[in-house]
Specification:
The complex is a heterodimer of chains A (612) and B (258). Chain A is mainly β. In chain A, a hairpin with a 6-residue loop joins strand 2 (30-40) and strand 3. Mean pLDDT of chain A is 87; it is low at 1-20, 357-407 and 435-444. By secondary structure, chain B is mostly beta strands. Chain B is built from 2 helices and 13 strands. Chain B has helices at 2-18, 232-240; strands spanning 51-63, 68-79, 84-94, 97-110, 117-126, 133-144, 148-157, 161-170, 172-173, 178-189, 201-213, 219-230, 246-257. Chain B has a 12-stranded antiparallel beta barrel. The longest helix of chain B has 17 residues, at 2-18. Chain B is globular. The chains are: A mainly beta (612), B mainly beta (258). At the A-B interface, helix 1, helix 3, strand 33 and strand 34 of A face helix 1 and strand 9 of B.
């Protein structure tokens, strides 16, 4: 473990890259990034990877809100590449999705990204081409706010979590397609049957096996890819390399956690040290102190940890599939270590994940049939949340506005600002805010079981108070989505004019994933009118979590906090969960909307959202 | 009055949104063709990749001491989620003579409204040391409830001859890597075919139990017991030809796939 110069910067800006293989930091407003093939050795074997400016992860880019940045990306790979600025609200042609925003960056070519930075916070960037994310083409973005940062801290560290495999990602994908439980070594066996029989009784064990078996499903299906092939990294370091962040006792240490993995959900904690979550997906939240939090792929959380003792603390990130871990150390001096906690038990999916009533063989499911009394949580949410009046016609609002002035027609048609201390909340005239009965606009969704859809969850609920499978009742305070309350009011106070309901669907056995039973290649884009305010409702009919990411527009999670709904770019949707969020379609373009599990996206869980 | 106040709020909001920074290239009014991507652009997601697969459920020696035979039963495909070209091949070699040589080329497609089953249609060729036969084949293959692999197929050839085959197997995981697999294949024929020693009715059964250890998912050596027997009129033909009607064997082989 080589020790580089410890950069002991001015307090509050101590980006001390204390280990020589922590990501380098680039600042300014012009950046040159070179993408090259590279060999790495994470496991004792040489494997093919991709590096940016010679490093994996790529350099951390530090921007300032209000600057216009230029990033010239040169491709030295033999294949097309791209960089997507995850969570950035920028013009669509700068978004970096080959096929939607641009043609991609051909081998030997340079593409120059240039856009104004109109937001602040912690984000990241990654390739949106093929499986390059799995090969290491990612890095952190840290954007300093134009105003004074409401968070006080003495040290500032980026903590990138990821998964690495020596296996080519194409092979990994192909293995999953041919045998979807290829990497699951926690299957139910004759041995677990005997064990369960002893513990729960033969009859209930048998009933349980038959119930799951009837559907050809297994409660042990936690992650598609596990430590059977993965090792997990923190800032590009395997666990035993022990990436270390320094502190002086009493200091406030800001840790910017970014889940930059291809397909791994991480549960992060620092045993002995509570973490105060201050930012989620780049947006400030009311501080909430927890012991542990789950990061869906592509989510970010900034936390403040304040160690008072002169001792080391382990930063422990275990995958949901509970084998292997990413680990680093928070220590007063280099070379110190703390105990690595034991792994939690392997979680099992439950009846609740399945949607309680089991999977339905329904042909054509009427969405309106899901009455809200089946979803008690949902009812509360709507009461406390945005006034839930589906406004029948946005049109007449525009019309009435047009009569009186020139500015109102622009409402929502220019990018709203990120919530901040100076954000003014756009409110429609009071007459438009009047409560109206909820109008369910969707008709019958032609959702039936078939090759693309294994089942439809009969009972769904917003599981916002639920920390997730493997985190319940572990004796620790675990962050849930209901804990997230924005620090600043949202910028758009208009109620939504319509709802778009999307089912997250899939067939694990065939490894086909999609929305509403269709893969990307079978589906039409989702059209939003420029300026409209829309509610998206996601219903997860599958037995797995899906981190759903909408490019270019904020996803304002409706978790009961009304005008303080947290702004997110990626929402982790649990099995049999129904969540809703509001979107201001304020930036035109073709935006990607997809599951951020790389292999789900590659299997079809992707849609184009067109704002025009 | 209220309206004017609100407009001021609107204006404030918009100004606050932009502040002194330059407005995005896509300010309101900028024409954006947000409908269709430019030609020559790649697909953002390639969810119809062509993959290929090859597996052997049986690749084994069978012995009862004095006699040893070699048997293979494999299948493979090339294609996408919804369109596959499927090949199947099986046969037994004893003393350089191949019997039970059955080779199929099928088009495969998922059955709508069924989650785990594909239908398959194509051609079966009986191609071995005996006389050659060609059949039209139609069947299904997939995962029945409770994780049973199940594949019934119907064959038809000239003269209105009909044959049927049912294959089934189950992977019982004793541990995460040790697998006990019972397997059976049954054949039926509507009419006798003396040239191939086949009688009408239920003609033969090939079944076994194999215990394999997955060193990796793609490589699992196994040991087991297999029984093949002929029945009814087929058994009569066998006895007339001086051949045994049943053959219990110890088997050793390897499950491989790619």
């Amino acid at each position: 473990m080589g020790i580089a110069a410890v950069v002991e910067g001015k307090l509050n800006q101590a980006d001390a890259a204390v280990i020589d293989h922590a990501p380098s930091v680039l600042t300014g407003n012009h950046f040159d990034l070179t993408i090259e093939p590279h060999h790495v050795d994470f496991t004792g074997r040489r494997a093919q990877a991709i590096k940016i400016n010679g490093t994996l992860p790529g350099p951390t880019l530090k921007w300032r809100e209000g600057d216009t940045v230029t990033i010239a990306v040169t491709n030295h790979l033999p294949a097309e590449t791209s960089i997507h600025w995850h969570g950035m609200r920028i013009p669509a042609e700068m978004d970096g999705v080959p096929g939607l925003s641009f043609a991609g960056i051909a081998p030997g070519k340079t593409f120059v990204y240039r856009f104004p930075v109109l937001q602040n916070g912690t984000y990241w960037y990654h390739s949106h081409s093929g499986f390059q994310e799995q090969l290491g083409l990612w890095g952190a973005l840290v954007i300093a706010p134009r105003d004074k940062d409401p968070i006080e801290y003495d040290r500032d560290y980026v903590v990138l979590l990821s998964d690495w495999t020596d296996t080519k990602p194409e092979t990994l994908y192909s293995n999953l397609k041919k045998q979807s439980d290829y990497y699951n070594f926690h299957r139910r066996t004759a041995g677990t049957f005997i064990e369960d029989g002893k513990n729960k009784g033969l009859r209930s064990t048998l009933a349980d096996r038959l119930m799951w078996g009837r559907m050809n499903m297994t409660p042990t299906d936690i992650a598609d890819v596990t430590n059977a092939t993965y090792i997990y990294t923190m800032n590009g370091n395997p666990a035993d390399a022990n990436w270390t962040a320094l502190f002086t006792p009493g200091e406030r240490v800001r840790l910017r956690f970014i889940n930059a993995s291809a397909t791994t959900l991480f549960d992060v904690r620092i045993p002995g040290l509570p973490m105060t979550v201050v930012q989620a997906d780049g947006n400030y939240v009311q501080p909430v102190t927890v012991d542990e939090m789950r990061l869906g792929v592509a989510e970010t959380y900034d936390v403040i940890a304040q160690p008072h003792e002169e001792r080391a603390y382990t930063i422990f990130a275990q995958p949901e599939s509970r084998g292997g871990y990413a680990r680093g150390t928070l220590a007063p001096r280099l070379g110190m270590t703390a105990e690595v906690p034991p792994m939690d038990a392997y979680p099992n999916r439950t009846m609740e994940d399945m949607g309680m009533g089991g999977m339905a063989h329904v042909k054509g499911m009427k969405m309106g049939g899901m009455s809200s009394d089946q979803m008690p949580g949902m009812k509360d949410m709507q009461m406390n949340g945005m006034t839930d009046n589906s406004m029948p016609e946005m049109k007449d609002m525009d019309m009435s506005a047009m009569r009186d002035g020139a500015i109102e027609p622009l409402a929502g048609k220019a990018p709203f600002s990120q919530p901040g201390p100076r954000t003014a909340r756009l409110m429609p005239p009071p007459s438009r805010m009047m409560s109206r009965p909820t109008e369910t606009r969707e008709g019958e969704v032609p959702l039936h079981v078939g090759p693309e859809v294994v089942g439809v969850a009969m009972k769904t609920s917003p599981r916002l108070h639920d920390p997730g499978d493997g985190l319940n009742g572990n004796g620790r305070r675990v962050l849930t989505y209901s804990d997230l309350r924005a620090l600043y009011k949202g910028a758009d106070g208009r109620p939504p004019t319509r709802e778009i309901i999307l089912h997250l669907t899939g067939n694990m056995e065939r490894f086909i994933w999609g929305f509403d039973g269709y893969k990307f290649s079978q589906a039409e884009p989702i059209h939003l009118k420029l300026g409209e305010r829309v509610r998206f409702v996601l219903i997860n009919d599958t037995m797995m979590e899906h981190p759903i990411h909408l490019h270019g527009l904020w996803s304002e999670l409706e978790n009961g906090n009304g005008e303080f709904s947290p702004y997110k770019h990626t929402l982790l949707v649990k099995p049999a969960e129904r969540v809703s969020y509001l979107i201001s379609a304020d930036t035109p373009g073709r935006w990607a909307f997809h599951c951020h599990l790389l292999y789900h996206m590659a299997s079809g869980m992707f849609r184009t959202v067109v704002v025009s | 009055m209220t309206r004017l106040a609100l407009q001021l709020v609107f204006a404030g909001a918009l100004l606050a949104s932009f502040g002194p920074t330059p407005v995005c290239a896509q300010a309101p009014g900028t024409p954006v063709d947000a409908r269709a991507p430019a030609s020559g652009w790649p697909e953002p997601v390639k969810d119809n990749r062509v993959l290929n697969f090859l597996t052997f459920d049986e690749l084994e020696g069978r012995t009862n001491g004095p006699n040893t035979s070699f048997r293979w039963d494999g299948q493979g495909w090339i294609g996408t989620d919804f369109n596959k070209l499927w090949i199947k091949s099986e046969g037994t070699v004893i003393n350089g003579i191949t019997s039970d040589g059955d080779h199929e080329i099928l088009y495969d497609r998922p059955i709508p409204h069924l989650r785990y089953f594909d239908w398959q249609a194509g051609v079966r060729l009986d191609l071995d040391s005996g006389p050659t036969r060609a059949w039209a084949a139609i069947g299904m293959q997939g995962l029945a409830p409770y994780f049973f692999n199940f594949a019934p197929t119907l064959y038809v050839r000239d003269g209105g001859r009909v044959a049927g085959r049912i294959e089934g197997s189950y992977d019982l995981y004793l541990t995460q890597r040790l697998i006990l697999q019972p397997q059976v294949e049954l054949n039926f024929y509507s009419q006798a075919d003396r040239g191939r020693g086949i009688g009408s009715g239920f003609s033969d059964l090939d079944g076994g139990v194999r215990l394999g250890y997955q060193f990796s998912r793609k490589f699992a050596p196994y040991l087991g017991y297999a029984y093949s027997g002929v029945f009814g009129q087929t058994a009569t033909f066998s006895r007339q030809a001086g051949q045994p009607t049943s053959a219990p064997r110890l088997v050793f082989g390897v499950w491989v796939w790619h």
